[in-house]
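User: two proteins, same treatment. go.

Assistant:
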Amino acid sequence: MPAILAIRDLRKSYANGFEALKGVTLDIEEGEILALLGPNGAGKTTLISTICGIIIPSSGTVTVGGHDTIEDYRAARSLIGLVPQEINLEPFETVWNTVRFSRGLFGKSRNDALLEDILRKLSLWEKRKSRIMELSGGMKRRVLIAKALSHEPRILFLDEPTAGVDVELRKDMWTIVAELKASGVTIILTTHYIEEAEAIADRIGVIADGALLLVEEKENLMTRMGQKQLEVQLTTPISVVPEQLAHYDLQLVNGGDALVYTYDTRGERTGITGLLNDVAQAGLALADVQTRQSSLEDIFVDLVSGDAP
């Protein structure tokens, strides 16, 4: 099955020589959730804006459902729903008219039942007659999401959708994301809340300085690049690591109450057995032993800093 979104060598340069996108190539399959992570200024919003036709690329191609975003813009754009970072709504219009107008812009026939369902799921139904200017920031964010869903897109872009919003909206948002995925909608998410990407994404993409560093299945990425730490808690604090344990490159933490050993989960041998034997041989008494897996945030920081293997 061909990818619903195919990006080939996408580049965007400006007159001053700045390269916002540097040859991004990516295929996104129908029905998957891709989390796009990157620091501020990495190119996430530029990439989304280029796919959606808001920014014209310097070179490269994007096809959505087989439609080229330049040569067949209207057909391609009709398949896309976009929740932008910035709240840009007509302040004097009502919630209902705002969402209904958005559906009409894409040439969709009237479907009040669908719009009611969207507004109810976003806890906006009781606010449908309210003007946008009367809503809180969180409620305005909900209206943006409703607008993006109003024309039943096959691809939904969420550009920092929960930034600065309440916990309730965040929970509502991920419930809707799960339902959309189950119905076959493809979702591309950018977020600063890495724990959210870790919780819901199928694949993780990391972009920095306009270049796509990697795109990989989340579980594979965490297995391949993740490290584990073994924390050996001691019954009696020590001030220095004993000489016979020096080759393990241990960290002394918690005021000397514990030793931390970092190991690679990909290795044939972790070295844990030898470490624990040597700890006993050094005359140290163990109070407890715990392990910790690297989180997606740990891996992300290593990638963008250039420290990843």
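Protein 2:
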Amino acid sequence: MEPIISIRNLTKTYDSGLQALDNINLDIRRGEIFGLLGPNGAGKTTLISIICGIVRPGEGSVSVDGHDIVSDFRAARSKIGLVPQELSAATFESVWATVNFSRGLFGKPPDPGFLEKILRDLSLWGKRNERIMALSGGMKRRVLIAKALAHEPEILFLDEPTAGVDVELRHDMWEMVHGLRESGVTIILTTHYINEAEEMADRIGIINEGKIGVVEDKTVLMNKLGKKQLTLSLQHPLSKIPMELDDHPLELSADGNALVYTFDTQKKHTGIPELLRHLSQYGIDFKDIHSSQSSLEDIFVSLVREKA
């Protein structure tokens, strides 16, 4: 299947001399949720802005569902809905007016029933006649999503969509995202809430200093790079790890009451049997044992550090 977004050798250098993107090559699959992760200033917003036609590209090319974003801008842009990070809106307009206007901008015929469904799905129907300036930050964020969906795009960009949104509203938004994906909409999201990307995304791309370092299916990425930890709660605290255990990747908790053993899930031998045997041999008893696996946040932090 052809990708719905295809990016080739994309580089962007601003007039100030800042190179925001450096030779980006990336394909977004039709119908997936793609999580784009990176620290502040990594190039996430620049990349999204170029695809959406807000920032002119430098070198390279971008096509959206087969339409070049420069030579066939109007067709490419009509495929895209964008929820920007900033809460910018025509604050004196009503919710209904601004969403209806957004639909008309893309040449779509009036469809009050469709717009009503969007507003109801976003819990905005009861606010449809209110001016946007009177809404809370969370509701303004919902209005931005409604505007982005008004022209029935096949691709939805969510740039930090839940920033400043309370937990209840965030949950509602992700319910909506699941529904959109099920209807065939391709979703690209950036987020600082890495647990959301871990829960929602099908694939993860990590960008740092304008370069794409890793693009991988989420489960494959976590299996490849995730570490497991074994935490042993000790019967008696230790002041330090005995020299006899130096060959094991162990850390002692700050209070001396636990040993943490880190191992690679991909290796044939975990080393756990040897560790337990040595602990018994040296008279170190434990009362409980607990295992955990690295989160996507752990993996992200380690990858960014490696690239730094």
